[in-house]
Structure formats: structure tokens, C-alpha cells
Amino acid sequence: SVVIQECYVQNTAREYAKLYAAEAEPLEGFGEVPEIIPIFLIHRPANNIPYATVEEELVGEFVKYSVKDGKEVNFLRRDSEAGQKCCTFQHWVYEKTNGNLLVTDLQGVGMKLTDVGIATLAKGYKGFKGNCSFSFIEQFRALHQCNEYCEMLGLKSLRTTHQKQRKTASTKSKNLPNSSTVKKIVPKKGREHRDFISSEH
């Protein structure tokens, strides 16, 4: 049943969040760590919907912090402390599971999160299969930008090769007149930027 799956996913993600907190909290300057609230399954045999879930009610502004698809750019995610720590949590899980699992759809009020999803590669991870498309893992890899919290945890950047290429591309364009520099360096779409980089080599 969907409800049982939802419960299983959220409580699995919660276990990862606890491990993340144990590693991040002792770090100087890290501060509060996002928490995934528990979700409880209740069985109501007399009811025509026999399973339901119960969880703490979150009061306040509900924000979606993580990328569900490439089009969703959320400033609250990018600029807020909770949003950055959620992105770091995703990176941490991704690295811990060798890129096999991603906690996604991170949303909630402040540092309290609920209704999360998990994406795994097609074969699953350690017997666990996620409820989100594995394309989310590819999107995360392509879109994630490390922040100071990723650095505090010593996570490996997912785009080291891009950065190296970008540096050489921009030094090459410095000796061009201003107008063409602007034209070349401001990409209309991410894809053109990548093509431009590879064509420089």
C-alpha cells in the first residue's frame, strides 16, 4: 500500500538524518541540523481505509527545500540556512551510499521536515527501493552546488571537472574585447555553457 511505503520511506530517511546530525552537530559552527519528523502507521481494522499515518503537525511557513526537477529553483532553498543544510544532507547521503540513494523532496517548516521521498538506482540499495525516479539522482549530481556546510563535512565536490574547465575557459576569454567576453560567458542555457567549455579544448 502507498501509505505503508510512505511511512517506510520517511522513517528510512529519518534514520539517515539522525546519522547526518550525529556527524554534523559536533562540528564547530555547523549549528542546528534538519530533522525528519517520525511518521507512524496506525491500523484501523474496522475502517474502510485500514491504514493511516499520524505525524506531528508543523506550524509555520511550509517550504520545499530540495530539487524535484531541474526547473524548480527555489530561492528559499538556495539562500536559507535550512535550505543549504538540506542540500548538504542530500550530498552527504549521496556520498555515504556511493551515489546509489538520494533523499529528495525535502520540505517542511524551518528545520523540521516531512513528506520526503527517496530515489534509488533501479536495482535499489541494500534491499531498499525508493519511491522516486532514479533520474532525480542524475539531476542532483548535475545541479548540486556545494555550500559551506558541504565543506565543513568534507564532502567531495560533484563538479570538480567542470570547475577546472570553467577556469581555463574564462582565462582564455580574458584577452578578448569586453563585448564578446560578455556574450560568451553569460550562457542562455546550462547546456550551451557546457558545449562552449568542451569546444575550448
Automatic annotation (TrEMBL):
<dbReference type="GO" id="GO:0016323">
    <property type="term" value="C:basolateral plasma membrane"/>
</dbReference>
<dbReference type="Pfam" id="PF02816">
    <property type="entry name" value="Alpha_kinase"/>
</dbReference>
<keyword id="KW-0472">Membrane</keyword>
<comment type="function">
    <text>Protein kinase that recognizes phosphorylation sites in which the surrounding peptides have an alpha-helical conformation. Regulates cardiac development and cardiomyocyte differentiation by negatively regulating Wnt/beta-catenin signaling.</text>
</comment>
<feature type="compositionally biased region" description="Polar residues">
    <location>
        <begin position="170"/>
        <end position="182"/>
    </location>
</feature>
<feature type="compositionally biased region" description="Basic and acidic residues">
    <location>
        <begin position="192"/>
        <end position="201"/>
    </location>
</feature>
<keyword id="KW-1003">Cell membrane</keyword>
<keyword id="KW-0677">Repeat</keyword>
<protein>
    <recommendedName>
        <fullName>Alpha-protein kinase 2</fullName>
        <ecNumber>2.7.11.1</ecNumber>
    </recommendedName>
</protein>
<feature type="domain" description="Alpha-type protein kinase">
    <location>
        <begin position="1"/>
        <end position="158"/>
    </location>
</feature>
<keyword id="KW-0723">Serine/threonine-protein kinase</keyword>
<keyword id="KW-0393">Immunoglobulin domain</keyword>
<dbReference type="InterPro" id="IPR011009">
    <property type="entry name" value="Kinase-like_dom_sf"/>
</dbReference>
<dbReference type="GO" id="GO:0005524">
    <property type="term" value="F:ATP binding"/>
</dbReference>
<comment type="similarity">
    <text>Belongs to the protein kinase superfamily. Alpha-type protein kinase family. ALPK subfamily.</text>
</comment>
<keyword id="KW-0808">Transferase</keyword>
<keyword id="KW-0418">Kinase</keyword>
<feature type="region of interest" description="Disordered">
    <location>
        <begin position="161"/>
        <end position="201"/>
    </location>
</feature>
<dbReference type="GO" id="GO:0004674">
    <property type="term" value="F:protein serine/threonine kinase activity"/>
</dbReference>
<keyword id="KW-1015">Disulfide bond</keyword>
<dbReference type="InterPro" id="IPR004166">
    <property type="entry name" value="a-kinase_dom"/>
</dbReference>
